């Protein structure tokens, strides 16, 4: 599972940096590298663009995993270059941006938009896999999530617009419930298609969502 990101338009990035003259760049060696939005090549290209626009780049780094404690270690390793910068431009997912904000006292600017959590179905082709809704029904739907696989997020069968197994919103896309039906049929579990799922409770876990484990790893 990867955080799927895309680079913001350069005009938007430059606009956010307008009040800052010295920039430190941060990339991510995991998801952003895989999807080619914040790896070494992309960070180096961004450095060039910023310099052409008159910004001074005090340094850059690509953190192996920008969304975990490696960010703290990287902040320490690059303390001098960070100290010389007036802001930090982060080419990582939103988690990486938030993590960097914990360890520096300067403005942290995102260079990427975080789109979704996805799986790679074929080289370079990523599909949203989980909405992280906290109300998983994959056991009833043969491992296919209708919340993400269906454009309308339906839970109890296809809409009236499905046509020959295709989605009415995107006719190149298979209807989620056609896929669910076919897989349940293969598993001899078609009776699950009759199960009624009540409307999702958007507040099943109030935001910001948390999970707390005690010292013995027991959820509280």
Describe the structure.
By secondary structure, the chain is α/β, with parallel strands linked by helices. It has two domains: 2-115, 3-Layer(aba) Sandwich (Rossmann fold); 131-194, no CATH class. The chain has helices spanning 10-16, 31-34, 40-52, 70-77, 79-84, 94-103, 146-149, 176-186; strands at residues 2-7, 22-28, 56-63, 87-91, 108-110, 112-122, 125-130. Helix 6 links the parallel strand 4 and strand 5. It is elongated and about 65 Å long. The protein starts with a strand and ends in a 34-residue tail after the last helix.
State the low-pLDDT regions, or none.
Answer: none
- Give the topology string: H per helix, E per strand: EHEHHEHHEHEEEHH
Looking at CATH, the homologous superfamily of the largest domain is: Response regulator
Tell me the name of the CATH class of the largest domain.
Answer: Alpha Beta
Structure annotation, total helices: 8
CATH structural fold name of the largest domain: Rossmann fold
Going by CATH, the architecture of the largest domain would be: 3-Layer(aba) Sandwich
Major β-sheet profile: 4 strands, parallel
Shape: elongated
Keywords:
220 residues, alpha/beta, Rossmann fold, four-stranded parallel β-sheet, 21% strand, elongated
Summarize the structure.
It is built from 8 helices and 7 strands. It is α/β, with parallel strands linked by helices.
């Amino acid at each position: 599972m990867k955080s799927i990101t895309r680079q913001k338009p350069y005009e938007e990035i430059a606009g956010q940096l307008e009040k800052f003259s010295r920039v430190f760049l941060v990339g991510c060696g995991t998801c952003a590298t895989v999807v080619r939005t914040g790896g070494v090549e992309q960070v180096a290209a961004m450095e060039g663009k910023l310099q052409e626009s008159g910004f001074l780049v005090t340094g850059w780094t690509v953190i192996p995993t920008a969304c975990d404690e490696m960010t703290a270690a990287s902040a320490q390793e690059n303390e001098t270059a960070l100290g010389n910068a007036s802001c930090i431009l982060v080419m990582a997912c939103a988690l990486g941006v938030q993590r960097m904000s914990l360890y520096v006292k300067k403005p942290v600017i995102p260079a990427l938009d975080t789109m979704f959590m996805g799986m790679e179905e074929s080289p370079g082709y990523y599909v949203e896999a989980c909405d992280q809704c906290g109300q998983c029904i994959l056991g009833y739907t043969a491992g296919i999530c209708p919340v993400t696989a269906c454009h309308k997020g339906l839970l109890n069968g296809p809409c009236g617009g499905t046509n020959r197994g295709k989605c009415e919103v995107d006719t190149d896309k298979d209807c989620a419930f056609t896929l669910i039906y076919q897989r349940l049929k293969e598993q001899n579990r078609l009776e699950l298609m009759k199960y009624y799922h009540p409307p999702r409770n958007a507040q099943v876990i109030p935001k910001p969502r948390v999970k707390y484990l005690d010292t013995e790893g027991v959820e509280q």
